[in-house]
From TrEMBL:
<keyword id="KW-0234">DNA repair</keyword>
<feature type="region of interest" description="Disordered">
    <location>
        <begin position="315"/>
        <end position="340"/>
    </location>
</feature>
<keyword id="KW-0347">Helicase</keyword>
<feature type="domain" description="PD-(D/E)XK endonuclease-like">
    <location>
        <begin position="63"/>
        <end position="311"/>
    </location>
</feature>
<dbReference type="GO" id="GO:0006281">
    <property type="term" value="P:DNA repair"/>
</dbReference>
<dbReference type="Pfam" id="PF12705">
    <property type="entry name" value="PDDEXK_1"/>
</dbReference>
<keyword id="KW-0067">ATP-binding</keyword>
<protein>
    <submittedName>
        <fullName>Recombinase RecB</fullName>
    </submittedName>
</protein>
<keyword id="KW-0547">Nucleotide-binding</keyword>
<feature type="region of interest" description="Disordered">
    <location>
        <begin position="1"/>
        <end position="66"/>
    </location>
</feature>
<keyword id="KW-0227">DNA damage</keyword>
<keyword id="KW-0378">Hydrolase</keyword>
<dbReference type="InterPro" id="IPR011604">
    <property type="entry name" value="PDDEXK-like_dom_sf"/>
</dbReference>
<dbReference type="InterPro" id="IPR038726">
    <property type="entry name" value="PDDEXK_AddAB-type"/>
</dbReference>
<dbReference type="GO" id="GO:0004386">
    <property type="term" value="F:helicase activity"/>
</dbReference>
<dbReference type="InterPro" id="IPR011335">
    <property type="entry name" value="Restrct_endonuc-II-like"/>
</dbReference>
Amino acid sequence: MDSSIEDGGAPGGGAEQTDPAKAPRPAPTTAAPAPVPSPSIRSTVAGDVPASGGERAAVAPSSLSPSRAGDFMQCPLLYRFRVIDRLPEKPSAAATRGTLVHAVLERMFDAPAAERTAPRAKALIPGQWDRLRESRPEVTELFADDPEGERLAGWLQEAERLVERWFTLEDPTRLEPAERELFVEAELESGLRLRGIIDRVDVAPTGEVRIVDYKTGKAPRPEYAEGALFQMTFYALVVWRLKGVVPRRLQLVYLGSGDVVTYDPVVADLERVERKLRALWEAIERATRTGEWRPRPTKLCSWCDHQAHCPEFGGTPPPYPLPVRADESGSGSQGRMGPD
């Protein structure tokens, strides 16, 4: 089996790959990968999603994931609503389809290599949709006003198209992932605990690690690519701190546009993102102490479920559920803290 770290297992004639680092690509390895040996990395199917309904008592944040870091960088008040207030959110058709497609791609590797075909993958979609509805009944709200099932049929067809496109970008018959849907967690020297779920980890016999993330949307223009790269370097940092190995390659597979974007990190990249995360966490801790969570209006507000509670839209946030203390470290700032 060819689970090459270098070529992504892509068949000839696949989509052109863009590399932000513009690093030269060494010759591919061709042997099957070795498993990830670290006992500090464990697998789980649990997702990193905020709780809904407010049934659990509010507690101060204790760890940081890429999605929650992204929330704070986008809008500190959104972070509060999701992490501390745990306000419910309506299911999104796009996000739910992404969850469905991810489940299908993960399950594909349960089959022998020769049976990992596009028709088989498409055949998995109905069953995975049933499982998703069982585990998250709220997703049925997406098609509550679709009695004839026309919108649902179109939605499932789009999921099929995304799954089919994957086979033009990677060849699963040549891949034997070391891990799938891998939960990783590490505590930095500063005490900050980082956690997240990696879609796929490939490990070559030489020990080179490739981290792969599936995206069901389209690849962003280069000037807007920082968010996805931040997520991947976040994962690379966790793996580095756990295993002492800098991943050889970070790979984003954009099923919506048929692009594969790769980046080869170096130690300086990971040290930079670690500094960024420490500063970000200090800002989160300060806001948690003081109760000052400032909204940051952007074009993304149009998709926010919490406008009724947001001062920018005339709303009032719920009563702050945590104790409030004076900020002993100074006024500080919750200005934008995007990846640099």
